[in-house]
């Protein structure tokens, strides 16, 4: 992330602030002002393009893939049969049936020679496969464990579980064995312990390699000092010293989060808290993670929603439910599409043939073969008039429109619109990607063109140690927090504060894969917004990005100066 952010006005600093907005302009800045964008013909031939990710984008030519950076430089010529995006900016490249590694600058770290390579962990390790054996490689392309294992289970909390034949062991990030493959079973480390089986005895292994046998038939690794234990074919709970917290009485126990446990009895599931107190009766077929600290519950082929505290906010009633993004999940029931928020409020929009996930406060909708957008109240903001459309990213969406005579499809061109539906960049491209960090890639006459947004501000990266960090955004003017009353035909009158919509639709926190973190927002004072952390906190060593869009207004209805403001942060222990 770039570091060259200059503050133009003097403002009060708070310890927990990540950015300070000078940011209200006396003149409204609209995305439709084309001088915000530059378009450069790169003279790089291609048949297809992708969206930038971590500063690079894939292109393809004649069925082979290459890589281009955000300055338009060709990093890898289109000569690879596959290119995959990795976390942390490292890229898996393929030639034929073999795979290698490149970094985000296009430097080849390892020529394609392995049968497979996994994603990199946050700590910079990946599993490699050769001749049906697995090893470990780091981000410098150095093999720290030769392919010798029958399976490697992924890096978690400092160690990888590895298996040779029927025996298990642990390897650290440097390729050093904590325990050679002498264990009869092993679980991942959690809370500084791993549940392992040594001979006939189950117990806990600490990070120094010390094993403490406990008198149970099977165990799982602890969560907040609570250990699922099995005795006489039933599961209960104990502490790390083996003291029983809840007598074994369930067929299975699995932690959903730090304070919520799924239990199974006779093929049905319910929930407990970490003391063993029943929260939800075993009346459901399954409970699976959705996203944003929400869970999907199923019963008799229908789906409902459970929150992070274990409360049912929607009983199983949907034929299908999508993952939560921006606090809402798309649902389908009896051929009707709609969406549900985290409080359980459901809005159906039967006039559309399909609704896609919300992005930046708007959801793409399809009516027949045309696309438009609705807001989080279900209002149609942009009528379905486009032949194709991407989701909104950084305040803009790529859309396809027919510039020829009505009823023809011979003059389809791509351009960009803002969240009011105004055209920002005219329909002049054969294809167009979404924006990422102010850059988009387009195709014109089988040549790549680079589009850059100059109205994007980057705040210096931050490193924190608190996984429950609450970020504050401080503005130099009071925000517009008027109340709005909506009269819905099916729900009656609803009064909401405009600031609630502003926070949800204009501020987002995403991880390095672009997934939304399950944050919540609080309007603390007329000029301060708090971003509260996800229920279980931020993941250690994961890179997160806070993005603020400019549809935030002060009481004089002035918008933020920068169209997009971004900041990266990492939690380090």
Describe this structure in words.
There is one protein chain. The chain is mostly beta strands. It has a domain at 17-29 and 455-571: Sandwich (Immunoglobulin-like), CATH 2.60.40. Helix content is 2%, strand content 56%. The strands form 15 sheets. A four-stranded mixed sheet has the order 1-51-56-55, with helices on one face. Strands 2-49-48-47 form a four-stranded antiparallel sheet, with no helix packed on it. The longest helix has 9 residues, at 498-506. It is globular, with a radius of gyration of 26 Å. Residues 1-33 have low confidence and may be disordered.
What are the salient characteristics of this protein?
4-stranded mixed sheet; disordered N terminus; 573 residues; 56% strand; 4-stranded antiparallel sheet; mainly beta; Immunoglobulin-like; 2% helix
Topology readout:
Elements: E1 17-21, E2 37-45, E3 48-49, E4 56-61, E5 64-69, E6 74-80, E7 82-85, E8 91-95, E9 98-102, E10 108-114, E11 116-117, E12 125-130, E13 133-138, E14 143-149, E15 151-156, E16 159-164, E17 167-172, E18 177-183, E19 185-186, E20 193-198, E21 201-206, E22 211-213, E23 218-219, E24 226-231, E25 234-239, E26 244-250, E27 252-257, E28 260-265, E29 268-273, E30 278-284, E31 286-291, E32 294-299, E33 302-306, E34 312-318, E35 320-321, E36 328-333, E37 336-341, E38 346-348, E39 354-359, E40 362-367, E41 370-375, E42 380-386, E43 388-389, E44 397-402, E45 412-417, E46 423-429, E47 431-432, E48 439-444, E49 447-453, E50 456-464, E51 471-475, E52 483-488, E53 492-497, H1 498-506, E54 507-510, E55 520-525, E56 528-532, E57 543-549, E58 564-571
């Amino acid at each position: 992330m770039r570091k060259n952010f200059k503050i133009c006005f003097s403002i009060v600093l708070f310890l927990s602030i990540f950015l300070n907005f000078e940011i209200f302009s006396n003149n409204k800045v609209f995305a439709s002002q084309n001088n915000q964008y530059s378009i450069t013909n790169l003279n790089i031939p291609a048949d297809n393009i992708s969206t930038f990710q971590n500063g690079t984008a894939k292109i393809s030519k004649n069925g082979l893939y290459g890589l281009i950076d955000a300055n338009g430089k060709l990093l890898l010529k289109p000569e690879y049969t596959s290119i995959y995006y990795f976390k942390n900016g490292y890229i898996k490249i393929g030639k034929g049936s073999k795979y290698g590694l490149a970094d985000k600058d296009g430097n080849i770290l390892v020529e394609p020679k392995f049968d497979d390579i996994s994603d990199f962990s946050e700590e910079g390790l990946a599993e490699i496969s050769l001749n049906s054996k697995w090893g470990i490689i780091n981000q410098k392309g150095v093999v720290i464990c030769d392919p010798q294992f029958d399976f490697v289970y992924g890096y978690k909390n400092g160690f990888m579980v590895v298996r040779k034949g029927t025996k298990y062991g642990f390897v650290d990030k440097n390729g050093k064995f904590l325990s050679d493959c002498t264990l009869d079973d092993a679980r991942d480390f959690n809370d500084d312990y791993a549940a392992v089986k040594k001979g006939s005895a189950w117990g806990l292994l600490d990070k120094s390699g010390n094993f403490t046998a406990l008198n149970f038939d099977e165990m799982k690794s602890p969560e907040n000092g609570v250990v699922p234990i099995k005795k006489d074919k039933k599961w209960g709970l104990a502490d790390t010293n083996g003291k029983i917290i809840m007598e074994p009485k369930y067929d299975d126990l699995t932690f959903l989060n730090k304070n919520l446990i799924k239990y199974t009895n006779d093929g049905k599931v319910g929930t407990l808290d970490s003391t063993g107190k029943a929260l939800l009766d075993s009346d459901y077929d399954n409970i699976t993670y959705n996203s944003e600290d929400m869970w999907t519950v199923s019963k008799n082929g229908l789906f409902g929603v459970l929150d992070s505290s274990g409360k049912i906010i929607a009983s199983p009633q949907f034929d299908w439910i999508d993952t939560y993004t921006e606090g809402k999940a798309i649902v389908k029931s009896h051929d009707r599409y709609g969406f549900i928020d985290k409080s359980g409020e459901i809005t159906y929009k039967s006039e559309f043939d399909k609704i896609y996930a919300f992005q930046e406060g708007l959801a793409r909708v399809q009516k027949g073969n045309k696309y438009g957008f609705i807001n989080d109240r279900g209002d149609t903001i942009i009528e379905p008039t486009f032949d194709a459309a991407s989701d909104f990213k950084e305040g803009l969406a790529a859309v396809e429109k027919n510039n020829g005579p009505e009823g023809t499809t011979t003059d389809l061109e791509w351009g960009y619109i803002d969240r009011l539906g105004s055209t920002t960049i005219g329909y002049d491209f054969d294809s167009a990607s979404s924006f990422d960090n102010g850059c988009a890639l387009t195709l014109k006459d089988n040549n790549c063109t680079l589009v850059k947004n100059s109205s994007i501000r980057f705040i210096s990266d931050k490193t924190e140690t608190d996984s429950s960090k609450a970020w504050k955004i401080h503005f130099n003017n009071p925000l517009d927090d008027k109340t709005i009353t909506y009269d819905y035909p099916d729900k009656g009158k609803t009064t909401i504060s405009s600031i609630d919509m502003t926070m949800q639709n204009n501020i987002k926190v995403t991880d390095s894969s672009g997934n939304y973190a399950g944050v919540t927002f609080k309007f603390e004072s007329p000029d301060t917004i708090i971003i509260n952390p996800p229920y279980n906190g931020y993941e250690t060593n994961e890179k997160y990005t806070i993005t603020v869009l400019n549809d935030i207004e002060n009481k004089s209805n002035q918008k933020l100066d920068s169209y997009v403001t971004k900041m990266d942060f990492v939690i380090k222990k």
